[in-house]
Amino acid sequence: xxxxxxxxxTLEHGRAHFAFECVENAINVLGNKKGEYKSYVKKIPMLIKxxxxxxxxxxxxxxxxxxxxxxxxxENILNWLKRDEKRILKDASKIENFDGLVKTVTxxxxxxxxxxxxxxxAFFNWLRRFAEGLIEDEEDKNRGDGNxxx
Length: 150
Description:
By secondary structure, the chain is mainly alpha-helical. Helices cover about 75% and strands about 0% of the residues.
């Protein structure tokens, strides 16, 4: 296996492992509101593709004061970017909170903005998968009880 393939595999493993930890943490912190987290995590990639990363981050910023799930999602994004081996945001370790990340995103060059958007989407791909797998919602319960007749 070439070094490039190994590093891509390692990067994907890192994203997957961190995303799994994020979802487990959200389940523990949110308790019976974990379904909100799942719903928002599923929605955010489409928001990024439709509106761009900056507007999506502004949306999360506006909602996080009212919803712990959005606050956790913002923390998930920032903490992943701090761990990101590619160092798309060179000074990510100096950013203290999601508000600081939003401010940083508004000052990025176009190429950095695009690279960051792609990285956040790649992270959400794992986050969405694990949220769907680990968080059962009412719709899932109704389908999975074996008593559904169609």
